[in-house]
Specification:
alpha/beta; Aminopeptidase; 2 domains; two-stranded antiparallel sheet; 10 strands; globular; binds zinc ion
């Protein structure tokens, strides 16, 4: 019954906002649904985001579906009683001038030290419905927001950030960081990037590379501090023991546990903010280009032929599939459920729990001096 009500209200909201009455739509939605806010699981949020039949589906940067996703996130945060801030931005692709937006909610803590937890909400095209990349990240941001309402106070302040247009050059994250003042940057003690955090074989947590990323304004403030990664890894071990988030082993160009600048953490590391990046994949597979984590799973259905003894394709010259999920038509919830019953939901829940514990005891886990490496 509750779900039908939500559906009707969602339709009403979309109808009003399509007519250009977004403020009215938000108010209507807010007043009808605020009490009681409906707590949904990560999995239920994910279904509403990526189910190809009854939900938004693929959400290419700058598209109508990407905008619908922003509205979806805003609506659910409002429903939980948060104040949502929207930051619009324009960006260019090869063929077009497009627009997107970043959305934030803030939960002030006892200190003016901020923990930013971020996920991008756009997806690629190419047949992907963006379940793992990055519906799962957004589903966790929504479920986490919901769970944080159960607590009266936090040692540090918390910002949840939904970023637009990641897949076309980290547009949302770059814009977001470019608009921060130096005082704001200084007050951010940690940024955690959630990108493809469910679906792959194992959970990993990375830090920024020891070799500076290509930063828009040079590398002046760049930090490769592993402090947030290390805190999350230890916390994960205390929560999940042998299933905890791991560091990937070293592979050419990438020492153990460090990652490239290919997702939304990069602009933050460039600005001197210690980052951690959570993802699920499988670094023990000898993939197309070696042990680089691009092959997300050993599941035989994701390979033309997988050789378990050597952890690579039976025929490396003939292999086409390489265990890839993200950016392919394998990135859909129906397939992931068929291949890995219960996995996506479990990994999302683990990440929500990890982040909830991180911010609840941030003064214990993130009690490091920024800039000291
Ligand atoms: Zn992604």
């Amino acid at each position: 019954m509750l779900k039908i009500q939500i559906k009707v209200l969602n339709m009403l909201y979309l109808f009003c906002s399509k007519l250009g009455f977004r403020a009215l739509a938000v108010t209507l939605y807010f007043s009808f649904v605020l009490n009681p806010a409906i707590a949904m699981s990560e999995y239920e949020y994910l279904q509403l985001l990526v189910d190809s039949k009854q939900a938004i589906g693929a959400r290419f940067a700058g598209s109508k579906q990407e905008q619908e996703t922003a509205d979806f996130i805003e609506r659910h945060w409002l429903q939980m009683g948060y104040t949502v801030k929207s930051q619009q931005f324009a960006f260019k692709t090869q063929n077009a001038n497009l627009r997107s937006e970043n959305l934030t909610i803030d939960i002030p803590g006892q200190q003016d030290k901020w923990v930013v937890i971020a996920a991008h909400y756009d997806s690629t095209g190419e047949g992907s419905l963006g379940a793992t990349d990055n519906g799962a990240g957004i589903a966790v941001l929504l479920a986490l927001a919901n769970r944080l309402r159960d607590h009266k106070s936090f040692p540090y302040s918390i910002r949840l950030l939904a970023l637009g247009a990641e897949e076309v050059g980290l547009q949302g994250a770059k814009h977001y960081v470019s608009k921060l003042t130096q005082t704001e940057i200084d007050s951010i003690i940690a940024m955690v990037n959630l990108d493809t955090i469910a679906g792959g074989d194992n959970l990993y947590v990375h830090s920024a590379h020891t070799k500076p990323y290509k930063c828009d304004d040079g590398q002046g403030d760049y930090t490769s501090s592993p402090a947030v990664r290390d805190a999350l890894q230890i916390l994960s071990q205390t929560l999940f023991e042998d299933q905890a988030h791991k560091l990937h082993p070293a592979y050419p160009g990438y020492p153990e546990g460090v990652t490239g600048g290919w997702s939304d953490h990069a602009p933050f590391a460039c600005a001197g903010v210690p980052i951690a990046y959570i993802e699920t994949t499988n670094f023990s597979i000898n993939g197309k280009d070696g042990y680089d984590g691009y092959s997300q799973s050993t599941h035989p259905k994701l390979w033309d032929c997988f050789d378990e003894k050597t952890n690579t394709a039976c025929d490396r010259d003939a292999e086409k599939k390489w265990g890839n999920i993200w950016h392919t038509d394998n990135d859909r919830l129906s397939l992931l459920n068929e291949l890995f019953p219960g996995r996506v939901s479990k990994q999302m829940r683990m990440n929500t729990e990890l982040l909830e514990r991180l911010v609840l005891d941030a003064d214990k886990w993130l009690n490091f001096k920024k800039g000291a490496e």
